[in-house]
Structures are given as structure tokens and as C-alpha cells.
Design brief:
This protein has 380 residues and is an all-alpha fold. The protein is built from 16 helices and 3 strands. It binds coenzyme A. Coenzyme A binds next to α15.
């Protein structure tokens, strides 16, 4: 290794890659602060639009600011014919892939898609956050052979999304649960997709490019792709008494238990607690789903016990994805849609990081340690 290069930990573990005012993850104490507020406080009291304003503008909106942002975002919900064409072409693709393809088309409607001024970034952020739910809903209708519904202007972002998916105005409890979910996952330190977005933005590339790249990073099961498998796991386990053997068998096969473990949290992910309360309320409202919630609670305890025994010292605790699965299932969504739903919340955080990175205006360009041969010859 050359003398000016220091070896970095695998996966950049422990490396500080940026300074940010957006969020702070305290993995030892299980605390998440988003722009000054604890995640418990924010999820309980702020809507998606309020939390997005907090991240994009640095403060919670006044009444007038909120009215302005909400009105502007409502106008941005509708999709262009080009975006709809891409959604139709990708109707059978996993929703997160379809969203990545459709997201790329959103630059077409922007006044100045390559501008990285704060105002151009705010305009792009609003467009992306407002259009993502319409895109996901449109695909779900097309995939079922149903007519795509135009977004309604009189409903909140979450309520309008559920209306567009199910074709009827949602139960306010469902809309509230989805809104709280989106706020809960909106930002989370230097996670992989956020880092990807910041790397792209650091080249002075635009918001839509950065968010499109972030979607690619979110898709993997080690990041955002876990809640679908969590639900599959619960459905396969079926009854609490089967959990211990099922989990032991998975671990014996060398597989991971989805919804557990985290690179930063060594205690329970605080978002798991927030979402477990949201899920509990939802499941309480829908009595037929109560059983799944009870099963999840029990499987969680069994998994923690078995993981501590089989993987001692790894501190594998419940992460955000475990209860995400229950919240999203309770509002009538399919497991294959879960990653795309995560993206509909996280897009506000990605956009905020792009805004912050554009202000910082410094290229992120680490080095690598070459471990290949140095003097190979071509020919004899
Ligand atoms: N189930 C079983 N074992 C797990 C595990 C899980 N969910 N998560 C980590 N481990 C084990 C690894 O197998 C490894 O064991 P080893 O030391 O015997 O080889 C050890 O714990 C450390 O794993 P590592 O991959 O180095 O940790 P990480 O910090 O990179 O992992 C995650 C973080 C999130 C990628 C990992 O915990 C995981 O894959 N979880 C499941 C997927 C998930 O829920 N993702 C959503 C994250 S919010």
C-alpha cells in the first residue's frame, strides 16, 4: 500500500463520510434524532409534508409554509404520459425496479433538470416526493388489470396513495399509519442509499440522477429489501410454537433472519418501537389481523433468544423492517411493494442529503487498496 493511503475498515464501518444536520443515529443507545427531534416525537406529531419541510428547509413549517408546500406538492402528483408509458412497460417488474425506471423520467417535467441551485433542488425534491406514490399506485392498478386512478387533490399524500391503490377512500387510521411509517423511515444517517445519493450529488450531478441511484442501492435485501421476506417468514412459521425450530433451521442453513441485526444499532432500533406501536393500533382496528401481530411479537422474542444463543456477541436486535412488514400489510399492500413504499418515505431524506451535498460542493472520491498482481506480462 502506498504511504499516503490508510486501510479502511470493511464496508467503511465506523468511517465518518460527511457532516450533516439531517439526522443522527446513536447505535449504542438506540436513539435516532432527525433535524433536532427524536424519531418518537416526529412520528407522533409531524406529517410527511411537515417532516419533509424540516429536512429540506431546516425547520418545521409555519402554517403558511405548510399550506404552500402541500399545495405545491398536490400539483406535482400527476404523472406525464411518458412516465405512465414506462410504468406500463415495467408493469410486471418488481415495484422497486419499476420505480427506478419511472423515477428517471421525472427529470423530463422539470424546468431545469440539470440545475443544482437550492431552488432547482427544492422543485425536484417536491416533484419526486409527490410523484413516487402515484407511480407505485399506478403500477399496482395496471398489474391487476385495473384502470389507473388520477390522484385526488383533497387528500393527504398517504390517504391519496391508498385511494389510488384500493379505489376507495381509506380508513383514516390506515392513512395515518402509512404517514407515520413514511416519517419514521425518512432519514437515517449515512445509510447505503443515502451515501450513494451523496456520492452522485458530489459530482455536481442533479437531484433526479442522485435519487435514481439511491433507489438502486435501496433495493438490496441487506438494506431496504427485508420487510417482504419478514412477512413471508411469519406466514411460513404460522404458529408461535413453530418459531424456535424454524429459526434454528434457517441459521443452520447459513441464512439470515430478516428484520434483525443492524450495522449501527447494537440495541433495539428505535424505529422498530415506533412502528410496533403503529402496527399494534392498526391490528387492533382490524381484528382479523390481530393474530399476525400477536405472532410477530412472539416470533420476535424467540428470534432474539435464538440469535443470542447461536450468534453470541453479535448483538442482533430487532430492526425497522420487522414491524414495517406488519404496518404495510395492515394497510393492504403486497410484500413485493414494500421496498417501493420504503422509497416513498426515504425519498425526502435522499433529497435533503442532495441539497446538503450540493451546498457542500466537494467531490466524494475515496481510494482503494490494490491487492492484485503488479508485474504481469502480455505474451512471452
Ligand atoms: N441473522 C443471522 N445472522 C446475522 C444476521 C441476521 N439477521 N445479521 C447479522 N448476522 C450475523 C452474520 O452472519 C455474522 O455472523 P458471523 O460473525 O458468524 O459471520 C455477524 O452477524 C455479523 O454480520 P455482518 O454481516 O458483518 O454485520 P453487518 O453489520 O454487515 O450487518 C445487516 C448488518 C443489516 C446487513 C445484517 O444484520 C443483516 O443481514 N440483517 C438481515 C437483513 C435485514 O434485516 N436488513 C434490514 C436492515 S435495516
Amino acid at each position: 500500500m502506498s504511504s499516503n493511503v490508510t486501510a479502511t475498515p470493511r464496508g467503511l464501518e465506523g468511517v465518518v463520510a460527511a457532516q450533516t444536520k439531517l439526522s443522527h443515529v446513536d447505535g449504542q443507545n438506540g436513539v435516532l434524532i432527525v433535524a433536532g427531534y427524536s424519531i418518537e416525537e416526529l412520528a407522533a406529531h409531524a406529517t410527511f409534508e411537515q417532516a419533509a419541510h424540516l429536512l429540506w428547509r431546516g425547520h418545521l413549517p409555519s402554517k403558511d409554509e405548510l399550506a404552500k408546500l402541500s399545495a405545491e406538492m398536490v400539483e406535482q402528483r400527476e404523472l406525464s404520459a411518458v412516465t405512465l408509458e414506462v410504468i406500463r412497460a415495467a408493469a410486471k417488474a418488481p415495484p422497486i425496479d419499476m420505480l427506478r425506471m419511472a423515477c428517471a423520467t421525472l427529470s423530463l417535467g422539470l424546468r431545469d433538470p440539470n440545475s443544482i441551485t437550492p431552488e432547482a433542488d427544492f422543485a425536484a425534491a417536491m416533484r419526486l416526493a409527490a410523484a413516487f406514490p402515484t407511480i407505485v399506485a399506478a403500477q399496482s392498478r395496471i398489474a391487476k388489470g385495473e384502470k389507473v386512478l388520477a390522484p385526488r387533490k383533497d387528500l393527504s399524500l398517504a390517504a391519496n396513495f391508498l385511494y389510488m391503490v384500493h379505489g376507495r377512500e381509506p380508513d383514516p387510521a390506515a392513512a395515518h399509519a402509512l404517514d407515520a411509517y413514511w416519517v419514521t423511515v425518512m432519514d437515517h444517517g449515512m445509510n447505503a442509499s443515502t451515501f450513494a445519493a451523496r456520492v452522485i450529488a458530489s459530482t455536481r450531478s442533479d437531484m433526479v440522477s442522485a435519487v435514481t441511484g439511491a433507489l438502486g442501492a435501496l433495493k438490496g435485501p441487506l438494506h431496504g429489501g427485508a420487510p417482504g421476506p419478514v412477512l413471508d417468514m411469519l406466514l411460513e412459521i404460522k404458529t408461535a410454537d413453530r418459531a424456535d425450530a424454524w429459526i434454528r433451521n434457517e441459521l443452520a442453513q447459513g441464512r439470515r433472519i430478516m428484520g434483525f441485526g443492524h450495522r449501527v444499532y447494537k440495541v433495539r432500533d428505535p424505529r422498530a418501537e415506533v412502528l410496533s406501536r403503529v402496527a399494534e393500533k392498526m391490528q387492533g382496528a382490524k381484528l382479523e389481523n390481530r393474530g399476525l401481530f400477536e405472532l410477530a411479537r412472539s416470533v420476535e422474542q424467540t428470534a432474539l433468544k435464538v440469535l443470542a444463543e447461536v450468534k453470541p456477541g453479535r448483538n442482533l436486535r430487532t430492526n425497522v423492517e420487522f414491524y414495517t412488514a406488519l404496518v404495510l400489510q395492515a394497510v393492504g399492500l403486497q410484500p413485493e411493494q414494500f421496498v417501493a413504499m420504503f422509497a416513498c418515505g426515504r425519498v425526502a431524506g435522499w433529497a435533503a442529503h442532495v441539497i446538503e451535498q450540493h451546498k457542500e460542493d466537494h467531490l466524494i472520491r475515496p481510494q482503494s487498496e490494490y491487492i492484485g498482481p503488479k508485474a504481469s506480462r502480455i505474451g512471452s
